[in-house]
Amino acid sequence: EFRMDRVFSTDELAERYPGITKDTLTTWRYHGRGPRFFRAGKRVFYREADVLAWEAEQEAAVRKASAAGAA
User: Fold this and answer.
1) pTM above 0.90, yes or no
2) Which residue in 57, 55, 37, 60 sits closest to 47, CA to CA?
3) Which end of the chain is more exposed for a tag (fewer CB within 10 A), N or C?
4) For residue 45, which phi and psi values (nearest 5 degrees)?
5) Rounded to the nearest 5°, which phi and psi values hold at 21?
6) CA–CA distance from 36 to each of 16, 33, 50 (Å)?
7) Model confidence over 37-65: pLDDT tens digits?
8) What is the pLDDT of residue 49?
């Protein structure tokens, strides 16, 4: 059975993060930052699993930096 993961467009992902614009996401893609993405033709999409993994990585990095600053 084929099951499609939820995907977000650049517009949808920008809406998910207040203060993060489509231009920021474009810049992150160019520099290899931000969530993993894929292209379908000229359109860019982000798989939900990749977005959630990236969010977890960001949260872990902030925790690590906070712990290092408290030491």
Assistant:
1) no
2) 37
3) N
4) -135, 155
5) -95, 170
6) 16, 8, 6
7) 999 999 999 999 999 999 999 999 888 88
8) 94
